[in-house]
Amino acid sequence: MVDDSALKEVYKQYESFGGSKQEFASADFVKFCKDSGLYNDKGNKFNTKPPNRIDFVFTYACVNGEGGTKGNKKMTFPQFLYALKGISHELGKDPEEVRQMASTATPSTNATKADKNRFHDDTSNYTGAHRLQHGGSAIDKQSSRDLRKLGMLSPAELEAAAEEKRKVEETFAQYDEDGSGYLEKQEILNALQSLKPGASSTAIDMVYSMLMKYGDKNGDGKLDPAEFKNAYNRLIEILNTMGSGSVVPEEKALVKAKYIAFANFGSSGASSEEMDSARFKLFCQQLFPSTFPANQDGTTQVDLIYADALRVRKTKKGGDTQARTITFAEFFENAVLAIASKGGITVDDVVGAILQSDGPVAKGATKAESNRFADNVERKKEKSFKAAAW
Q: Could you say which of 20, 141, 354, 384 is the most buried, measured as most Cβ atoms within 10 Å of its Cβ?
């Protein structure tokens, strides 16, 4: 068993590392986790990226460990020992194993290559240019989003999603008889029909026309594997919107379905057809990030568009002068036009982005954390930590 005295020596090394100030801050804790081999980003288990579990453990230990106080950002040795229990919980490792790994940590500016569970050594996690530089193939933004979503699924949901993905990929390969990597119109229609035999030809035709109108920018009428997967997802959405009926919804009805998804995101109450300002901001910054960046200017532009749509609701004949939310009418007839104008794009481009979206996702949130969205935006209280099972 590792003695506390050995761990105290490690703590003191990091407390004094990099300067004359004797303090153990967040950066020291992150470095300690990396140097000890306890840094593992795989599957968002324990990391410095969203959902920032290393930062969570550090802050929680500083606040709730022995002698901790609200707002404390300098970790004491007793709080360090408490944090090791948190690391054990996060990684699912035996507490003694964590203490053993911690006791071997030595701060150094010339780190040697360590075991493969470190994020910076695990090239499978790289994306974009970094992935290409290390011998991998590029992962586009949509694929990256898909991977994050898979991390939010339960084991059963993950298995079902993998099976569905495999089925779609095999169907694409089956109908791409010439191996060109593309499906043409009739091949697309036949492939979708084989995936969903119960879908009407009208529904499948609508999916194809939607993708050609909003997604086929070069106008060649063909779909690559990623576009075909998107076509299948849109078909499922249309079938879900149809319910038990046989009438294929119009584009406006599909836009409204996405609008309602955003309007009710994180709410545990009855479904509402009115959208508040916080959810409108989420909608704008998720679907149009370049037009409405997550900064002061982007937020201001979103607020102006929302305020104008709200003004329309209040002032039109029979309007609700006390309203604080907008309905789908103001969203579709006013906000969509304003978004297009601000972004220098067409209304069709805005509608296309809405139809192609997979619905609301809170940035950096897990599936459970997304359900707390309503509390975060409506109460606007300071975030508190739930009791950890350390």
A: 354
pLDDT, tens digit, 9 for 90 and up, residues 252-307:
988 999 999 999 988 776 788 999 999 999 999 999 999 999 899 999 999 999 99
Q: What angle do CA 362, 123, 40 make, to 5 degrees?
A: 60
**Quick one: 254-378 is in which CATH superfamily?**
EF-hand (1.10.238.10)
User: What Rg, from alpha-carbon coordinates, does the chain have?
Assistant: 26
CA angle 226, 228, 230 (to 5 degrees): 75
What distance lies between CA 331 and its chain's CA centroid? 24
Residue 21, token pair as written in the block: 């100030």
Q: Which fold has domain 143-249?
A: Recoverin; domain 1 (1.10.238)
The CA-CA-CA angle for residues 231, 237, 243, to 5°, reads 140
Provide the pLDDT for residue 140.
52
Q: For residues 279 and 360, give the distance between their C-alpha atoms in angstroms, rounded to a whole number.
A: 9
DSSP of 139-196, one letter per residue? --HHHHHHHHHHTTS-HHHHHHHHHHHHHHHHHHHHH-TT--S-B-HHHHHHHHHHH-
